[in-house]
Amino acid sequence: MTSSHTLFYGAGMALQPVNRRSVPDEVFDQVLGEVVDGEIGAGEPLPSERRLAEVLGVSRPAVREALQRMAQTRLLEVRHGGSTTVRDFKRFAGLDLLPRLLVRRGDLDADVARSVLEARLAIGPSVAALAAARGGETLEATLTDTVDALAGTDDDVERQLHALAFWDQMVDAADSIVFRLMFNSLRAAYEPALEALAPVMAAEVGQISAYRVLTAAVGAGDPDTARAAADRVLRPATDSLLTALTALAALRETTTTRETR
């Protein structure tokens, strides 16, 4: 692991002068990248605002704003009159960090993607059960319209968008702020890869009959059937994607082994 001293002062410095059109955002992204990629370890101090501003070629207020944002996400511990140190993001960060973890240095992190899929499969049936208990006939009519739109297109990307709308409506009906925030974070992580995932997700979004069974269970106020139906909707694509991620991880491990020989 590269120490913060080497990172910011050494010849092989990873940080680059930033684009001044969005200075605090770019400072935030660069420093955050070093933290989540492990280039700056938990407990290590950050250089001073002055030194960061020099290295990045920006003003100290821009650096200060970016570091304040990181502190708000609990990734930094700021001691008044002392140093600013990095925290272990796995222990202190929230779900808002998930999109940044999913794609790191331009590559999909297979372990994070697996976690997203597992969480989705675990949460979805519980959301459906709550929606069935709290939504009723009004929700059934809304979901039916969305499933009709889902059935009315053969485009896999459009189907994914309709499916996201379906689950958005289900989360609203579940009336759980925790599930809502979790859904928001999972969706933010998923949407950038939506088009690339379209072929694999076709196994899920093409199950019109399964969506109708789930909709009927919600309308009937039957949480147990809704839970089982949600699992039926979510599991095929989950299994397919987990298999693909396992193969991807094996391929990368093989490639890495060859390159190090």
What does this structure look like?
The protein is mainly alpha-helical and 261 residues long. Helices cover 71% and strands 4% of the residues. The protein has 13 helices and four strands. It has helices at residues 4-9, 23-36, 49-56, 60-72, 89-92, 98-102, 110-134, 136-151, 156-174, 177-190, 194-205, 208-219, 223-260, and strands spanning 76-78, 84-86, 103-104, 107-108. The strands form two sheets. The protein has a two-stranded antiparallel sheet. Strand 1 (76-78) and strand 2 (84-86) form a beta hairpin. It is elongated. The chain starts with a helix and ends with a helix. 29% of the residues are buried.
Task: For the structure shown, list the relevant keywords.
mainly alpha, single chain, 261 residues
Radius of gyration: 22 Å
Order of H and E elements: HHHHEEHHEEHHHHHHH
The low-confidence runs, each spanning 5 or more residues with pLDDT under 50, are 1-13
Task: Estimate the mean pLDDT confidence.
Answer: 83
For the secondary structure, the number of strands is 4
Strand residues, percent: under 5%
Helix content: over 70%
Report the end-to-end length measured between terminal Cα atoms: 21 Å
Question: How does the major sheet shape up?
Answer: 2 strands, antiparallel
Helix and strand composition category: mainly alpha
Provide a count of the helices: 13
Shape estimate = elongated
The neighbouring-strand order within the major sheet is 1-2
Reconstruct the topology from this structure.
Elements: H1 4-9, H2 23-36, H3 49-56, H4 60-72, E1 76-78, E2 84-86, H5 89-92, H6 98-102, E3 103-104, E4 107-108, H7 110-134, H8 136-151, H9 156-174, H10 177-190, H11 194-205, H12 208-219, H13 223-260
Antiparallel strand pairs: 1-2, 3-4
Helix pairs in contact: 2-4, 3-4, 7-9, 7-10, 7-12, 7-13, 8-9, 8-12, 9-10, 9-11, 11-13, 12-13
